[in-house]
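Risk register update: the risk of archive-format incompatibility is retired. Evidence:
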Amino acid sequence: MTAATTLTADDRIEAYARGSNFPPALWALNGVIHGIWIMGNDYRVRSGYYGGYPATCLRRVRSLFPKKTAVLHLFSGRVDLSEMPGDTVDINPELDPTFVDDAQTLKGVPVHDYDLILCDPPYSVEDAEHYKTTMVKRNLVMRALSERSKPGTHVVWLDQVLPMYRKSDWLVRGYIGVVKSTNHRFRVVTIFERREAGDDEG
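Archived output:
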């Protein structure tokens, strides 16, 4: 266990209660965070960009990781960096990301420099069409992150499905349902932690 992973699930839940100012919505079970975030009737996407994070989502995520300072946003679009500062990766150069790259390879991104990586990929072919790109292969993104991230790095993945991942590379540290409002899709935040080499912890 590295210094970057010393916070337990209970520690993160306490940090969430202190930092988010939202009612308790999380609990720990066998070291894994579980819960649900009811986002309510706030339809705002501060960036105004299609598929952007709903209001308060980034604040909630940030409160779970009070010690993380090196943040990377994959599929960044026009992410609101005032809510969570960090570097950005997008395949569209018109969005002026820090790195123009394919999240399925990340060949030009120094992933090992970051200890918290947020991923909000297109959920469907129709979503991908809005971004004028092809549908992402989630397993390739997780593989690229496995190959380039350091032990103790956390990946926060917001999606409608659980991406395929290698259990030898990743521990699952949380499942949080995200309910925005009526006529909006349900989503889940899955929290992964990059394993140490030879780490057999379940």
